[in-house]
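Lay summary. Proteins are chains of building blocks that fold into shapes, and those shapes determine what they do. In this project we predict the shape from the chain. Here is one chain we studied, written as its sequence of building blocks.
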Amino acid sequence: MARHFLAVLAVALALSQAASAKSWLDKRFNTDGTVRTGYDASGQEVVMLNLNQQSGAAGFNSKEQFLYGEFSIQMKLIPGNSAGTVSCFYLSSGDDNWRDEIDMEFMGNSSGHPVVLNTNVWANGDGKKEHQFDLWFDPAAAYHTYTIIWNPENILFKVDNLFIRSFKRFGGLAYPSSKPMRLHATLWDGSYWATEKGRIPINWSNAPFIVSYRNFYANACVSGGACHAGSGRWMNKQLDGAEWGTVKWADRSYMRYNYCDDGYRFPQGLPAECSRY
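And here is the predicted shape, written in a compact code that computers can read:
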């Protein structure tokens, strides 16, 4: 009994300490839509984005702008039928026609089918660089860590401890290198696009749809300011042989779509970088 009491007391103390601390959400982000916060049993702050037909999209957006960095967050996605929803973790310089953007977008699906992770890179308003993967685990059953590394030579996408994509910089081709970007996390209705090319829309009877975020991390260069200590670790990051092996494994086993294989989309010829990888 005493041991049980001490365990409960420890959890309560952790929650109290966490609640009294300045939250990473309030300190670093502005919010839109229905955004709620709480704490898990370990005392970590959990940010929950809530989507229903009345509330519309929800999200949080960084107060600072960044030029290169390593960004990661843990997410627990929508359980059950999430068709038509899109949950995002991404960087963007804005919403103009010349924006730069680096996307990790989770495209909801019907119960029992894989959630699709769409990765994409935009430079000077040119996107259409998608690699899409069926996730090899249930992303609603537990938290998983999603990471973007952006440096002058390549953009790396990572799921938990596995690198799944490298978008390399090639001379003469557009690459996000000069426009500061804000970090965003959003949940929205993507019925026109997200699930089987829009064939399956959101079923609002399943609402509210909730995505949970925790354990946000950023080591980045703030626009107009200095880079954080330890930036060399990601600023010079290139994949080694073993890490390229996990990229090839993801391509071989779980890739659903590669823009470099889509001749129908590019009738005038595939993008130039496709022949350089």
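What the prediction tells us: Residues 4-21 have pLDDT under 50 and may be disordered.
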